[in-house]
Amino acid sequence: MVRTYHHGDLRSALVEAGLRALETTEIGDISLRQIARDVGVSATAVYRHFPDKRALLVALAGAGIEKLGEAQRAAAESAGGGPGAFGATGRAYVRFALAHPALFRLIFTHLPPPGDTVFGESLAARLLQEKAAAATGGDPAETRRLMVQAWAVVHGLAMLMLDGQLPPDDALIDQVIDPATLFGRRR
User: Where's the HTH tetR-type domain (predicted)?
Assistant: First the structure.
């Protein structure tokens, strides 16, 4: 059902419609005109906020990385902190990828290059840095190493599962992303 858009934050409404579209539509088939129809506005109104499809996809990727960070924060809070929270953020990362495959792939194909951080300044990146720093006692070189190592493991596992190379199995996710056995202690 198409709802007619009247007032408020049109940009946010367009991003939300785009996120919903990604649940059922391939990235390449997302259309600004269809998003406009879904929100109930003219295509011209969309172009005031997104000059082209790429701009919309970048906005969707930005919203997606924040949703990933929110899922990771909720998992860390449920775990209660410490190494358990670090593992929980990694498991949440893989589970988010499996629950939202098109959005997950879009995040890593349409976000701007991260610069000096591992994957930007998003909530997800800040959580990774915070958890890695806590696990390494704040040593900058060790924190960076652990950030890259942890991200490589969870991203690799997510991609292997998304690509059908490994089964999308919760028990396997828990087994692989276990901080007690995954990363050797350097002390």
Answer: 8-68
